[in-house]
Amino acid sequence: MSFSFHPEAEEEFYQSIEYYEDIETGLGYDFALEVHSTIKRSVEFPKAWAVLEGDVRRSLVRRFPYGVLYSEREDGIFIVAVMNLHREPGHWKKRK
């Protein structure tokens, strides 16, 4: 199984890396590793995480207040958001 990003989700991911890197050198890298680890777990066990709405599930990122929101597809998972859990919780719904 593989994964792909909604373009806006990919942009969120890169913006968050930059944000953490601006706070402290290397923190953006740590964030990226944690998100990729979360994606890997989601790809390996796509039904393991809670359904938020419809077919969209949320897998939590360790060490950071983020979630990876995804739906399962035939060829893997489709990531609709890499979102900060403390801001605008429903902004991803228009991406489905």
Quick tags:
alpha+beta, 2 helices, 96 residues, five-stranded mixed beta sheet
Brief characterization of the structure:
This protein has 96 residues and is an alpha+beta fold.
Describe the structure.
By secondary structure, the chain is of the alpha+beta class. It has one domain (2-86): 2-Layer Sandwich (YaeB-like fold), CATH 3.30.2310.20. 36% of the residues lie in helices and 30% in strands. It has helices at 7-23, 27-44, and strands at residues 2-5, 51-53, 56-60, 66-73, 76-84. The protein has a five-stranded mixed sheet. Strand 4 and strand 5 form a beta hairpin. Helix 1 packs antiparallel against helix 2. The radius of gyration is 13 Å and the shape is globular.
Instruction: Find the structural class using helix and strand composition.
Output: alpha+beta
Number of domains: 1
How big a fraction of the residues is strand?
Answer: 25-35%
CATH superfamily: RelE-like
Task: Walk me through the topology.
Elements (H helix, E strand, L loop, with lengths): L1 E4 L1 H17 L3 H18 L6 E3 L2 E5 L5 E8 L2 E9 L12
Parallel strand pairs: 1-5
Antiparallel strand pairs: 2-3, 3-4, 4-5
